[in-house]
Design brief:
Blueprint: E1 16-22, H1 43-57, E2 60-67, E3 71-78, H2 80-85, H3 88-96, H4 103-109, H5 116-132, H6 136-155, E4 167-170, H7 174-190, H8 204-213
Antiparallel strand pairs: 1-3, 1-4, 2-3
Length: about 230
Amino acid sequence: MGRPCKSPISLEATPYYHCVSRCVRRAFLCGRDERTGRCFEHRRQWIEDRLLELVGVSALDFCAYAVMSNHYHVVLHINAAQAEAWTLREVVDRWHQLCKGSPLSQRFTRNEALNPAELVRLEEVATEWRARLMDISWFMRMLNESIARQANREDGCTGRFWEGRFKSQALLDERALAAYMAYVDLNPIRAKMTDRPETSDHTSIQRRIAAARDGKQPQRLFPFASNP
């Protein structure tokens, strides 16, 4: 079963969530704007690249994703066990792939000696970073802010790019997870962007099909428990 889209994210309830973020502008996030003739198709790659970058650093796994014309869908799994198992070094290194960190963390990565008080302070900061690296709200913010900056720069304008806060749906059992993964995977077909999942670019299902043909699990996607 699912939970209403505006309900808070709760790891105690479920580690699985379906999230949607929609562009606020009349002009397309991706695709082609028939009014102006401008093509924004290249922005699909922006979003997919950023999604995969963030998943590679964070403690979140992709179950499914699809980049549409004016919005995108992701089904995420919060991997709390992975985040808790990271050492201090791993947390700092992952955080530095996305942000500058702090003067203390920069010294730590350069293997400079920290006194006990400094090490305690770094541990405190790293605890916050560890929590953020498994937080869906932080993940979506990092994704949307970077895409908004790129799009605004390309469009030569400023202001809001996304339609408020993203919407999230808690997926409380395996039936809900399977249903929403299918919903996301088939979205481009329903939108008549393609007629087959294997030709559905910038989607998780295309990656899963390509990997399954070689008898493998796809990289950067949460693996199925049995034969893919």
